[in-house]
Structures are given as structure tokens and as C-alpha cells.
Amino acid sequence: MCEGIAAELAGIDLGDRRLNQRSVEILELLAAKPEASVNAAIERWGDTLAAYRLFRNERVRPEEILRPHREATERRMLEQSVVLLVQDTTEFDFTAHPPEDARCLDAEHRFGFYHHTHLAVTPARLCLGVVASEQFDRAPETLGQGRVRKRLPIEQKESFRWLAGYRLACEFQQRCGETQIISVADCEADIYEILAEFAQQSPAADFIIRARENRCTTERNAEHSGRAFHKVLDQLTAAPLLARRTIDLQSTPKRKARPAELEVRALEIEIKPPDTRRDLPSISQRFVLVREVNGPGDATEVSWLLMTTLPITSAEDLWRIVDYYLARWMVEVYFRTLKTGCRVERMQLETLDRIKNCLAFYQIIAWRILYLTHLNRTTPELPCTAVFAACEWKSVWMVTKKSPPPPEPPSLNAFVKLLTSLGGYNNRPSEPPAGPQVFWTATRRMLDFATAWKTFGPPEVSCV
Hints:
Elements: H1 17-32, H2 38-41, H3 45-56, H4 62-78, E1 82-93, E2 103-104, E3 111-121, E4 127-136, H5 146-150, H6 160-175, E5 180-185, H7 192-197, E6 206-210, E7 216-220, E8 229-231, H8 232-237, E9 243-249, E10 258-271, E11 283-293, E12 303-308, H9 315-326, H10 329-341, H11 352-378, H12 390-401, H13 412-421, H14 436-456
Parallel strand pairs: 1-5, 5-6
Antiparallel strand pairs: 1-3, 2-3, 3-4, 6-12, 7-8, 9-10, 10-11, 11-12
């Protein structure tokens, strides 16, 4: 399974043939034990030392490590009719063991950096790969200056990353031809400049952004004062009901998984720019209001105000927008895989540059875990040898079934049931499909069994 991940670095060019080969070896070794530290994953000291040398090599940059994976991702994107480019930010907290040049997160006593990623996902939630990522942190003297930064040009703000992310989506739209690219983001991306940018690009990527601001329309509200304007949310709340459906909500730290009955309303409304951006034009923007009815009454009810460039003329259009926005959840799963599965916040390297080089490898590994998880759910009839080597599936079969492996390999679905049992998954009919955490736990045990199989098993069986 981990040998296949090497294809994501095909054509890597770090300026030295030995560095190129070493990067592939490091990726395979780290992928074999994603939960382990670098020292534990790369067992031989000579190989471990070589990895540390690569991480600290001044000629090695994370964008160059990720470049071949990005190119492979773009090739996968070209095979799809619709691709969602989901952008989001998470924090990596290294307060417990900060590198020597670490700066702040949101407080002087918290050290680390923010990680902004752009993940390519299909509407069916197949993760295609990482197309870009960047990191930023804060100097202590800049903390608490939100009001000062509010009137700065967008290019001087941290929030510029969202506009840059939408521009990146437009670049892919211009290169990907018939593949429709849709930029998807949560409420931090509610920036007027992105709404205005759509008219400046040709061809422009579509977008779906959850609104944070209840923006003003261009129509004055005479009932309040001569200076007041009507609000978008008031108009949408009064709009006719267009669609109703029950969906399954994912569990989050604030709520349990549950069905939710949703009502949807939509309008195209002329909105004015904020007072701090009066130089920008008014925009005719499409809004979709999604609200839960008959909810549990525990303040976890769904209430989404979505801004989009997609059509909103039919119920089918509206549910497509809702489904695309729900697919944004894959970036949250990706971040969780990086933090909990790959344990990137436990890396103890001397400088930020070394951490970021190492993180580039784990970004590819986290994608691979999500990709295989989805593959099992959508193409269970594949033979397991499409993903797993002989020594992997045969050793797992022997351990779990307590019998010799069959002459023909089982299907992917049948084998994954055996594999995930090693990660504590019971495969009960009432359980949802196994998730990434089960996969990375089971994979680590499988690779130990595969090593034993290669060492002590039948001599004619190779791990290919």
C-alpha cells in the first residue's frame, strides 16, 4: 500500500538526484507508520540521519516537495466534470516544544503557525489531493491590533489568503478546460473583495462561501433612519420556501451526528460594499438561506447563509449547492488526519523550515489515507491487490482468519473488513463505514505483519 504513494513524487526535482531518491524513501517510510515519530518510522539510524539532513537542507522547500503531488492532483482533476477546491485554515500548536524561531498563534504564550490549505475534492467527497498550502504566524507586538488592521488594504491582511485562494481556483479553471472548478469556503472567507473578484476573472471559477456578515442591500430602510439600509437576511427570511429535505449531519465537537430537516430559500440581491471598501462597486449576489426546522433545541440547529455564483432557479440547483457545501467537511477530516493520525504537532525539529519540509510529506500521506478510505466505500468490488501488496493482504488474512490465504485475492471490501478489525472496528451492520482513524491504526499493524511475513513467511512471496 505504501509503495504506491511514491508515485506522488514522480518527477520531483530538488536539485540533486540523491535528494530526489531520498525524498521518495522518506515518504514511503513515514507513510508506513504515520502515527510514529520520525525516529520510530525510520528505524535505521543512517536513514533517520539522512531524513534530518533533507529537512534542514537549504535547497529543499516544501513547495518543491509538494509540486509533483500537485501536478498529479491536477491530472486527477482533469478526469472530473466538477471539482470543489476547498480552502480552510487550521493551527499547529508547538507550544510544548517550540522550534527556536517559532512565533505566536493568538497569544504570546502559544507558539506555532497557521496552516492554510487548498484541497481538491469531488462532489462525491473523493479527495483528489492538495493543490497548494501556505503557513503564517504572528509577532507578539501585532497581537490585539484587529481594529488597526481593519482599514488596511486587503493585500496587507491575513485575510488576503482567502482572496488568493479564490484566484488560485480561477487559475485552475483557466487551465482545466471543461472541468468546472468551484471554490468552497467557510465564513472566514466572507470578504467583499472575493465577491467583486468574480467579475474580474475570465473564465472565473464559481464559488460557494458561507456568509459571516448580514450585508446591507442598496435599498435604504426608511423605517429606521435615512442612513439605514435593508439587510440581506431580512429579505431572505421573508422569501418563499423553495425546497425542503432531510440530510444526515456529521458529528462535530459541538454536536452528535443526527438527521436534520432543512428548509431552503434563495434570492439574488443587490448589495453595497462595506464602509471600509467604498471604492468597490455594488454587486448583484445570489444567496441561499438554509435553516433547520424541528431541531433538537440545543443551539446546534443548522443556519447557513450561503453566497454563490451557481444557478438558484430550481430546487435541484439549491440542493446541489447545499451538497457541495457539505463536501467542505472533507477538509476538516483532512486536518484531523494530519493532527491525530500523523501527529504532526508532535514533531520536534529545531526550526520552522525543517518542520514545514517534514509537514509537506505528511500532507501527501494524509491525502493518501483519505483517498483509500473513500476508495473502499465507492469501489468495493476491486481486488485488494489494486491497493495492497501480497505480503500485506496475506499476512492480515493469516492473523485475522487463522487460516492460510486463498489462492485468489479477496475483493477490496472483503479485505478491508479484515484490515479494519485490526484498528478496533467491529463491522457491525449498524455502524457507519470505517473512517480514517481506523485505517491509520490498522495500517500500522498490517505493516508490522507484512514485515514479519517477508522475513519469516514463504520465500516465494514478495511484497509487490
